[in-house]
Amino acid sequence: MTMSDQSPILHPEYGALAEENALLREELAHLLTTEHDLIHTEKHNLLALYQKKIGAWELRALQAQVAASRARRKLEMAQAAINQGRSPDWNEIEGLLELEFLLWQQKIAEAAENLAAAKDRLEHLLPAEKDREIKKLYYGLVKMLHPDLHPELRDEPRRLWMQTQTAYQAGDLDGLRALALVVEKSPPASAAPPTLDALREQIRSLQKQIENLEKRIAHIESQPPFTLRRHLYDDEWVAARREEIEARIKQLDAQHASLNKCLQALFSPDDNDGKLFGSN
After folding, report:
1. CB 157, CB 188: distance < 8 Å
2. I need a labelling partner for 240 at 20 to 30 A (CA). Which of 114, 203, 213, 246 fits?
3. pLDDT digit string (tens) for 188-220?
């Protein structure tokens, strides 16, 4: 046997470090998949579920708040005119109210649109089996193409990675299957086996990436709507929240009715000693 036929002698630590490196890559791929799913799928599903269970009540509360606030402002404008010794110009007041409450009307319209979009999203969620396959395919493509795991990849692999993200976010199962097949048949060229020092550096880098990613995921889950995840599946919590909003709506409706009575009094000659308007 010649010297050229002999296999290189590996450092005793190399095998263990290579195995640790592989396990860390698996963990990082899992965390990258989890983060992406939280941001692009679960967050939107939770927001839609919140709209379904609470949003309709909040929309009614917003409408009641705007109605009461508008009536109060109308009364203030009318009373200001009376205090100045003139009859309120109701057309002018209505025009001013339209301008003042334009932003609030836009908020009501946006809330109604969000409610409709949430209903549509929940009605078109992927079946569980399809969702599992999509996540499995995406995880496999993350391991092969994600820039954090393969910073050395260029051009075609990066283009495939961009297509992977687009297909995943669109829930395109066929697209992900096709991409997985392409990568399986023509996997990106592997880098040369790292030296012992390079392997140790890769491990340190992977550990740091995992630490940072775990912090990012923890931060994401500490923010709404993830903080409501448990509550949204708790029927008692949902019922209690709806009751709170219903009570608020009743208060606002009562305020609105009271303010309307005051406005009606300004129109009534009998309530103003035969005058259309009185003064403070």
Report:
1. yes
2. 114
3. 877 678 888 889 999 999 999 999 999 999 999
